[in-house]
Amino acid sequence: MTTALRRVIFIAMIAAIWEVTSRLSGLPSFMFPSLTQVFETLVNGLLSGQITAAIGKSLGRILLGFLIAIIVGLILGYFIWRYKLVEDTLGFVVTALQSIPSIVWFPLAIIWFGLNDFSILFIVTIGATWTMTVNATSGFKNVPPLYQRVAKTYGSSGFHFVRTVILPASVPQIISGLRIAWAFSWRALMAGELLGGGGGLGQLLEMGRSLGQMDLVISVMIIIAIIGTIVDNVVFSRIERNVQMKWGVHS
Asked: Is 0.85 topped by the overall pTM?
């Protein structure tokens, strides 16, 4: 039995248990909607464009924030790895900032940018930047010294040294950082949209809660889970396999 088939059977079992339990529980639909009701709401939301528009807004925000976080994280990671003074000062601060949940920044974001897309984009970026910085720094530090000595022996230095030795050798660690950073930024986005509005899947969650439409809430939760699964299993897993094959770790 293949992995895909096992997953399909398992999900089907969960769906059947959910449907039977919701119908036999005696609870009102706004507290425990049946799976049939949830899928009706999901399909209607997709056809009407309500959920589709929210998906577009959320993906636009997270892609922009995540791209900024990658660039900033790689730059900061390089300087922390390259210079001892930066490691002792900025590196210490980044480690401390990583322990702060990104949603804690939201009050500051509202004061600085107002209750708009910029504040949501800010916490999405913050949610991934520190994790990306720490993993990039770790990746650069873990490049085998032998690679560095051989490259310098052949005259590699400066940007050429970073581009041809440091970055390629630290790619596996950076990819791990990307997966973790994506998860943090995705959670930060949902929290920001829940509190800040401005459309998006998080705002749909808040609307479903305020209207007592648990079928809408669960529909959005399913969409969030599907997007997260696709990104992790299709994008990052494929990149990771390609890197492993290139390095000869996986055939």
From this structure: no
